[in-house]
Each structure stands twice: as structure tokens, then as C-alpha cells.
Specification:
Elements (H helix, E strand, L loop, with lengths): L6 E5 L3 H12 L3 E5 L11 E4 L2 E4 L9 H4 L10 E3 L2 E6 L5 E5 L2 H12 L3 H23 L6 H4 L2 H12 L6 H8 L3 H8 L18 H9 L2 E3 L4 H13 L3 E3 L4 E7 L2 E7 L2 E4 L2 E4 L3 H8 L3 H9 L5 E9 L9 E4 L4 H11 L8 E4 L14 E9 L7 H20 L7 E7 L1 H8 L16 H4 L11 E3 L10 H20 L1
Parallel strand pairs: 1-2, 1-13, 2-9, 6-15, 13-19
Antiparallel strand pairs: 3-4, 5-8, 6-7, 10-11, 11-12, 14-17, 14-18, 15-16, 16-17
Helix pairs in contact: 1-10, 1-17, 3-4, 4-6, 4-9, 7-8, 11-12
The structure holds flavin-adenine dinucleotide.
Flavin-adenine dinucleotide binds next to α1, β14, α15 and α17.
Length: 490
């Protein structure tokens, strides 16, 4: 009965791989997923310790509809739209609450900074316009196919986009929009959502603030790993076969034809192969190609992260699900990350506390803290030394801002650094989002979702088009499934 069904191998069970597997299975292909780790999810993972549960990677969930559309109704999970997106703490003592209600947020900004509320509202309106013009072209489309890019509608969108004259960096855009340096810093921060530098990344990245403030920030009822659990269950229901602890060793091809993969020493034939692994790893290990590797290496990697997971002995009512403690000197912080390849001695600190939403994530009266600073991609730094120094600086900063003695409250600690991110997920240099967007041409330089010279081979995930982050990885899977469908019709 299965003899006429096309076969597909997906390499890697990250979010892009899971979404691709579901979409290909729905197209009627027989799909097998090969994953080197013992569990699905890749960078989206969790761990439990001493009665606590921690989401280890992503903490922010936007565009949940992209997950919903993959799931059967009974597998759809509950997620809540956050009423408070983030609590911001500035070194001058200002505390600013980013309410999800845009008008309320703008009023809060006016009250705390003296800037008219209309300033924030106008900025977000402009960000929305840019999103509407660019997303269909750059996010939900494979613009590496000229036919897709040059539709009349896209050309119209691009012409309108050029008229908006958004050619400066995100930082320059924000300086023009906001007379208050705290707001510039707040809106510059969105560059870090794809691991980039606001002083270099194009102003178009203001679309991320539109995603968060106007389309909404969400949180799954059982935490971020619920996204993976549901997609995994959906894939299995569709008959996708998973092989865990099974790294793929080689992509098999010859004379411009895709043959399949080598795994566990065996050659397996597949008509379609979708790689969800880091593109650098793909060309260094699975299909060695020096030229392509050099091209990838010329692009600046996105930032990585240094994360401390702390079981805290008490609750902190002042804090929310997402909390940001800004540095005094943002420019110096990014110069350290991208030029000096180190962490400044006053880094911006992000504290994510999932038990604020998922009560069972920490024992009663306690909290699970995920404390993260941006870190440079791994380039041989002495991480043990950096970790020790940064830990002290974080504690001093949080103690100062919160009026606490945090050392006494830490029950246990786990740490994730760029080297562990690289080792655990294969991400080149431990970068969180593949190549950075530190150039106006970054979007055009990302690896395409296909290879014209090897029909049947496709690429999804954070290191290829359209980029890193859950929504974009999901988009890459959709783009690939559409291409496979088109190919099947031919
Ligand atoms: P990956 O997660 O990179 O998974 C690739 C998989 O391939 C891994 O499971 C790996 O084990 C497997 N693999 C590698 N080599 C082989 C092989 N040879 N054979 C078989 N399998 C192999 N995004 C957001 O949207 N919101 C956030 O808040 C957010 N925060 C983040 C925080 C951190 C600390 C990190 C690291 C990332 C964060 N991201 C966030 C980014 C997001 O997690 C990633 O962009 C996304 O999860 C990447 O998915 P992927 O499909 O590229 O696969």
C-alpha cells in the first residue's frame, strides 16, 4: 500500500524539523526523523531539578497561530496572552511596565519619561506598516526563487517599503523617534531577538516590537516545552517515525542527484531530505563543502547566551514573567559582544520566571529563575573565567536594583554557556539564531531553503532563510512543504 508514497528524511528534531515532518506527512509522504539527541526540540528543551522545572532555551512565544495551524484541534494547547509583557528596570532607578495594552503602555511611558504617549503609538504604527510590507516578502516566502519574489504584489509592497525610507540602523531609527535615551534602549533591545547588534542591524527590525506589542506575547499553560510536546505528538499521530540517539553521518548524492542519507553505517534512500541542523554543521560534516563553509564563516554569527538557572528559596512579588535590567552603556555592551568578543562588566540582565505563569514550575513559596546575559559567539574565550566574573556582576546588579541579598536565596544553580549550546544542538559557535542580521544585506545572504543543483534537498531552521526564532523556523518549514508539494505536482 505504501509502495507509491514518496519518502522523506528529516535530519534534526528541532522546531523546524518537527514542523517540516508534520507538513510533509500531511502531504502524504512517509516521513522519518533522525535526531542525535534522546529527545525532540533541539534548542527548545527543559530540565527538572529538586521539584523545579526550567525551560532551558526560548522563553518568549509570539505568533502562536503558526503552531496552532500545525495541530489537530484536540492537540491544540492553551496559551495565555500576557497582560504585562516585560518589567523594565533602568540603572537610574526608573521602572517601566510594558503593558500589552498599547495605549496603557504608551501612557506608562509618558508618565515615566515625560514623552508624549503619541510618540510610542506612532512608532508602533510605523513598525506595523513595515511588517505588513516586508513579512510576506521576507518572512513567509522563499525570495531565493525569483518567481516568488517578483510577483506584482511583492513589487508593489517593496516600492511602498522603499518610500518609507527605513535605511538607517535600528539605533538611528530609534534615536530619531525617541528623545529619551531609556526608550531608545528599550526599542534597541529588539535587535537581540535575533541575536543582532542594534547599532548595525537595519531599522526594519523594528517589526519585532510590532510583533510583541501589537500582535502579542503569549505563554503556553505548561511552559515553552509544551510547544515541542504537542508538535511531537502530532507528528507521531500522522505516522512520522522518530529515531532518537541517531545522528546522521552523511548526505548521499551523486551526479547532481540526491540519494538519501548514511545513518548507523547504513545507506538509506529517500526522495526528499530536509535538514534542520545548523547549516555550518551540514557543510562541515554531512556534505563537506569548503567553499560554502567559507561563505558561511564570513558572515558574523548572532550572539549566544550565558544562562544561570537558579532555584530560588523565596518569591519576588516585584518581578514578573519577563524582566529586564538594563546596562548603563548599551553601546559599550554591544561593542564588547560583537567587536571585543566578550561580555561587558555591566551587561543587561534578563530574568525569566516561568512559575509566575505555571505555578507548578517551582515548589510552593519558591521561584525558578532563568538569568541570562547576551554572550558573544564562541571563539575560544575562557568561559570559566567569564562565567565567574559575570555571575558576580549579575548578583551585584540585581541586589542593587531589588534591594536583596540574592546569594543567600540561591538553592542550586545550573549554567548554560555558548560551548554547551554548540555541543548540545550543533549550533555553530553556540550562536542562538544562526548568522546575525548585522548588515542591510543579511536577509539576502542567508542560505536558501533548497538547492537547485540537488533537487529533493531542503533546509529549515534558524540558520537558514528566513532566520532564527520559533516563528521564523516554523515559516521555513511551511516554505519547504510548499516547494515539496509543488514538486510532487510536476
Ligand atoms: P535546533 O533547535 O537548532 O535543533 C537542531 C536539532 O538537530 C537538534 O536537536 C540537534 O540535536 C539535531 N542534530 C544536529 N546534528 C544532527 C545530526 N547529524 N543528525 C541528527 N540530528 C542532528 N526563539 C524564540 O522564538 N523565542 C525565544 O525566547 C528564544 N530564546 C532562545 C534562548 C536560547 C538560550 C536559545 C539557544 C535560543 C532561543 N531562541 C528563541 C531561538 C530558538 O530556540 C531557535 O531559533 C529555534 O529553536 C531553532 O530551531 P531549529 O529548527 O533551527 O533547530
Amino acid at each position: 500500500m505504501n509502495q507509491n508514497r514518496s519518502t522523506a528524511a528529516v535530519i534534526g528534531a528541532g522546531i523546524g524539523g518537527l514542523a517540516a515532518a508534520i507538513r510533509l506527512a500531511r502531504l502524504g509522504l512517509l516521513v522519518e526523523v533522525f535526531e542525535q539527541a534522546a529527545h525532540p526540540g533541539g534548542k527548545i528543551s527543559e530540565f527538572r531539578q529538586a521539584g523545579f522545572r526550567f525551560d532551558k532555551g526560548p522563553s518568549l512565544f509570539t505568533l502562536p497561530g503558526l503552531v496552532d495551524e500545525l495541530l489537530d484541534d484536540d492537540l491544540k494547547f492553551d496559551y495565555r496572552k500576557l497582560e504585562v509583557i516585560t518589567q523594565y528596570f533602568f540603572e537610574d532607578g526608573t521602572q517601566l511596565t510594558a503593558f500589552a495594552d498599547v495605549k496603557r503602555f504608551a501612557d506608562e511611558v509618558a508618565q515615566k519619561t515625560g514623552m508624549p504617549a503619541s510618540g510610542v503609538l506612532d512608532y508602533l504604527k510605523q513598525a506595523e506598516k513595515i511588517y505588513q510590507l516586508t513579512a510576506p516578502v521576507f518572512i513567509f516566502n522563499s525570495f531565493h526563487r525569483f518567481g516568488n519574489l517578483l510577483t506584482w504584489q511583492n513589487v508593489k509592497r517593496l516600492l511602498q517599503f522603499f518610500r518609507l525610507k527605513t535605511f538607517s540602523t535600528l539605533h538611528q531609527t530609534n534615536v530619531r523617534a525617541f528623545p529619551d535615551s531609556r526608550l531608545v534602549q528599550l526599542f534597541d533591545r529588539y535587535a537581540t531577538y535575533n541575536g543582532s547588534n542594534p547599532y548595525k542591524t537595519p531599522g526594519t527590525l523594528s517589526v519585532i516590537s510590532h510583533l510583541e506589542h501589537q500582535l502579542g506575547a503569549y505563554f503556553p499553560k505548561q511552559g515553552m516545552y509544551q510547544i515541542v510536546d504537542s508538535l511531537f505528538e502530532q507528528a507521531r499521530r500522522l505516522g512520522v517515525k522518530f529515531h532518537f540517539n541517531t545522528p546522521v553521518d552523511e548526505l548521499l548524492s551523486g551526479d547532481g542527484h540526491l540519494k538519501g542519507i548514511r545513518v548507523n553505517g547504513l545507506e538509506r534512500n529517500f526522495e526528499v531530505v530536509v535538514s534542520d541542523i545548523d547549516i555550518h554543521q551540514f557543510y562541515s560534516e554531512l556534505l563537506p563543502d569548503k567553499k560554502r563553509l567559507q561563505k558561511i564563516e564570513r558572515r558574523e554569527a548572532s550572539s549566544s547566551a550565558l544562562i544561570f538557572y537558579w532555584g530560588m528559596k523565596k518569591r519576588f512579588p516585584k518581578l514578573d514573567l519577563h524582566n529586564i535590567f538594563f546596562s548603563k552603556n548599551y553601546q559599550e555592551e554591544f561593542a564588547c559582544l560583537f567587536e571585543k568578543k566578550t561580555i561587558s562588566n555591566d551587561p543587561t540582565v534578563y530574568v525569566f520566571i516561568s512559575c509566575k505563569e505555571v505555578e507548578t514550575d517551582a515548589p510552593e513559596g519558591m521561584e525558578n529563575w532563568f538569568v541570562m546575559v547576551n554572550a558573544p559567539a564562541h571563539a575560544g574565550q575562557d568561559w570559566a573565567k567569564l562565567k565567574a566574573a559575570v555571575r558576580q556582576e549579575i548578583i551585584a546588579k540585581l541586589n542593587r536594583q531589588l534591594g536583596e541579598q540574592l546569594e543567600e536565596q540561591i538553592l542550586f544553580e545550573e549554567v548554560l554557556d555558548p560551548v554547551s549550546i554548540e555541543n548540545q544542538t550543533g549550533s555553530f559557535q553556540g550562536a542562538m539564531y544562526g548568522p546575525s542580521s548585522n548588515s542591510p544585506f543579511a536577509a539576502f545572504n542567508r542560505h536558501a531553503n533548497f538547492r537547485d543543483d540537488l533537487p529533493g534537498l531542503y533546509f529549515v531552521g534558524g540558520s537558514v532563510h528566513p532566520g532564527g526564532g520559533i516563528p521564523l523556523c516554523l515559516s521555513s518549514a511551511k516554505i519547504v512543504a510548499e516547494m515539496v508539494e509543488e514538486k510532487m505536482k510536476r
